[in-house]
Amino acid sequence: MRPVSYSRVSDVATAIATVAADPTSAYLAGGTTKIDMLRIYAEPSQRLVDINDLPIDHIEVQPDGAVRVGGLARMNDVALAPVVLDRFPMLSEALLLGASAQLRNMASMGGNMLQRVRCSYFRDAEASCNKREPGTGCSAIAGVNRGHAVLGASPHCIATHPSDAAVALVALDAMIHVQNSGGHHAIAIDDFFLLPGDTPEREHPLNHGDLITAIEVPALPAARNSLYLKVRDRESYEFALASAACALTVTDGVVAEVRLALGGVATKPWRARKAEQVLHGAPATRETFARAAQAELADAVPQTMNGFKIELVQRTMIRALETLTARGAAA
Amino acid sequence: MVASHLPDAVQGPGRVDVVLNVNGATHVVRIEPRVSLLDCLRDHMNLTGAKKGCNQGACGACTVWVDKRRVVACLTLAIACEGREITTIEGMADNGSLHPMQKAFLTEDAFQCGYCTPGQIMSAVALLAEGHAGSDAEIGEWMSGNICRCAAYPNIRTAIRDVRDGVGGVRGATG
Ligand SMILES: Cc1cc2nc3c(=O)[nH]c(=O)nc-3n(C[C@H](O)[C@H](O)[C@H](O)COP(=O)(O)OP(=O)(O)OC[C@H]3O[C@@H](n4cnc5c(N)ncnc54)[C@H](O)[C@@H]3O)c2cc1C
Ligand code: SF4
Ligand code: FES
Ligand code: FES
User: Fold this and answer.
1) Which range marks the domain in which residue B127 is found?
2) Predicted ipTM beyond 0.90
3) Is the residue at B138 inside a domain?
4) pTM for the whole structure
């Protein structure tokens, strides 16, 4: 493991000032990504600033019905909060279907947004990888790419974004609240995750020292009928091959409201806007669902080993929509 | 810039004194900040119950509790546990008498090689306290962070059910 230095801070202003003052420093939350990266030499030596004592682990309902989750709130605590279970079941499920009980006790929501890709070449300091070392090439394109993306890839990087929670949050139009020495601002989650393009090393718009203080999920009554469907190589404790976060309201047999986002198949948590467009106002039938899924994947580009994902994710979307249609009718 | 007595004084990368509370006892070790809680327990405190399987959060053999929550010790820095309460498998017996879960693992033959067992037991006891042992499916899902290479899973589930329904009696079988 890389050598590190360490300090612990107890207030937000000191945390930000400490990290901002030293370009080699970084926040340490649950450490489930950070320690892993340092141990496998995927990141350089750092001065770690432990933020686990900061008072930003709240889960609060806002007057307008939005739910605000602190940047340090732990995955398990958010998933099991009654207000999240009740209003945003898809977020609860996305969190609980991720990692393991132990990791979810450690891992924070802010850290979850910033977790690094699981591409095995990114994690192998000997392999060339544009994300780890810009300009060295992408080993995955001519290598083992069964787990890689079919949407949003570029000739420079094809790694899938690994977060489950972010997929639900993208469907829910969440806002990422950020604080730095200059003040506070909020970023729409769809703008928070960047496509690789020709700068795959840049994954999000945060600057050095920016602290994620909270994630805000706006009120969405339709989300009470929502789910997260995750398809993977084993039943638990595994990243997604394909997943769908979906909220649906059907009125008189017609899709009145829908939110749909995909995981495991794209280089960022993928809002399925083309599918949503097909679904809006259309009869809630299998035929419509298949047409919507097809529209979303029309531009998909398979690599040598992951062509199966194009069909798999369409089936995942259709099953999510059918399940929610049946649940809505039974309610 | 920052006086050294303040809590945000920088420590390391060389060795520093770290004070840890493990199973109710205070230990002082001299380690680099990069040392994981797992290596600290095993190599610096001679508490070798927690095991190293993968060293990357993927197997659960290193499961211990920090402030009563189960975590993986391989992705936890020892220095980050100063001021927290650490519990390991060595702290489960009460005055020489095994914890009911340890007894149940013996009775139900819930292991073969035993390498994953300390982690399984630390997870299993936490599982009951969390209230996630309702059905076999729920036990399976909430124990999935503990891999058993010998596949003792059916007997591990039986041991957990024994404690849930018997001595532990935390929760009924509601499914
Ligand atoms: C074996 C394994 C399996 C996993 N499986 C899944 C899975 O199935 N699904 C899934 O979604 N995830 C999975 N994960 C990833 C896990 O969810 C993330 O590692 C975790 O959420 C990161 O949070 P953390 O608090 O541990 O972050 P840390 O490791 O502490 O930090 C991660 C990064 O974020 C930065 N950071 C942390 N907090 C903040 C903040 N508030 N503001 C600004 N920067 C910050 C750190 O500097 C660091 O760069 C898995 C991880 C492991 C090890
Ligand atoms: S897919 Fe991205 S992360 Fe993986 S080797 Fe290529 S550039 Fe690196
Ligand atoms: S050794 Fe810690 S999870 Fe495998
Ligand atoms: S008993 Fe051998 S790994 Fe579980």
Assistant:
1) 100-164
2) yes
3) yes
4) 0.96
